[in-house]
Amino acid sequence: MSFNSVKEMISEAENENRTLPETVLLHDLKDSAITREQSVRKMKYLWEVMQATSAGYCADDRSNSGLTGGNAAKIGRAASAGKLIGDPFMFEVIEESLKTAECNACMKRIVAAPTAGSCGILPGVLIPLSRRHSADPGFDDKIIESLYVAAGFGQVTAARASVSGAEGGCQAEIGTAAAMAAAALTWIGGGTASQCSDAFAIALTNMLGLVCDPVAGLVEIPCINRNAAGAMTAVSSADMALAGISSDIPADEVIDCMKEVGDVMVAELRETGKGGLAGTPTGRDIAARVLQKNSFAEK
Asked: How far apart, in Å, are the Cα atoms of 110 and each of 99, 104, 118, 177, 187?
């Protein structure tokens, strides 16, 4: 009984006088044939893993390719030194997004949200927010509710389009994750179900057409930095929705549009590592160096 549309999901919540996270939770119970306690326990576990990934980040770790590691720590150091332009919350969002994405590249444990390549966006926005409200009783419950909201929007996107870069380009991965995070943040901020939908649509709209072009075929360049950019898109989209700005195009139509865009993308722009940034002279040089390094390591 998964949802076929955002409109259906929100209408059910409103018609049944239930909250959006409760509506998604009840569908999870039907789909998975589990108890409420099991579902909530699983969601709490995922949140704990997100936090553990952040806590286990090590600036000295490097990916097997040697392309990734230490950049999240650079943000933290630069922020502490007063070198950055934004505000402290923004710095934390960028740092946390990079942490999780770097941990993914370094083969550590992460939560695919909805994919490994976009794993940094949800924790990137939620962990700093949880720190800000650490003294607020019940705030962790609000985080869990927001994860159900994100899951509901993610499920509809997977059903109507795709969350795979190989199918729909990076718009399907980073774009969906940013939109899910925007909806989650809007719920935490006290937004209505309709405002969550607006935030989702605004975020996904701003990611339409994003190609999947991993240099050397690895989920590192430009994927990791895109997690930070996606997280910032989530924050701005949530703020717009909470301010009362709506999406002129409904969320379901934005999802359908994303699918249409993904369907017409040439194969070189869908995770093949051949087009986009992967096809630039520098991208090809990096790929050649990684290939040479791997060939040497195998001897």
From this structure: 10, 6, 10, 14, 23
- DSSP letter for each residue of 255-288: HHHHHHHHHHS-GGGBTSSSSGGGGSHHHHHHHH
Q: Which pLDDT value is given to residue 297?
A: 60
Query: Do the beta carbons of residue 187 and residue 230 sit within 8 Å?
Result: no
Measured between alpha carbons, how far is residue 75 from residues 70, 82, 100, 176 in Å? 9, 11, 14, 25
Closest listed residue to residue 225, CA positions, set 124, 128, 122, 94: 94
pLDDT reported for residue 298: 58
Distance CA(109)–CA(85), nearest Å, equals 31
Check residue 294 and give its pLDDT: 78
- C-alpha closest to that of 129 among 50, 245, 197, 40: 50
When pLDDT is cut at 50, 70 and 90, the band that residue 2 belongs to is confident
| Distance, CA of 211 to CA of 168 (rounded, Å) | 8
**DSSP-H helix ranges across the chain:** 6-15, 20-32, 36-55, 71-80, 88-105, 121-132, 139-160, 165-168, 170, 176-188, 193-205, 223-242, 251-264, 281-298
Phi-psi group of 69: left, alpha or beta (phi > 0 → left; psi -120 to 50 → alpha; rest → beta):
left
For residue 227, which of 111, 138, 96 has the smallest C-alpha distance?
A: 96
State pLDDT tens for residues 206-232: 999 999 999 999 999 999 999 999 999
pLDDT tens for each residue of 137-149 = 999 999 999 999 9
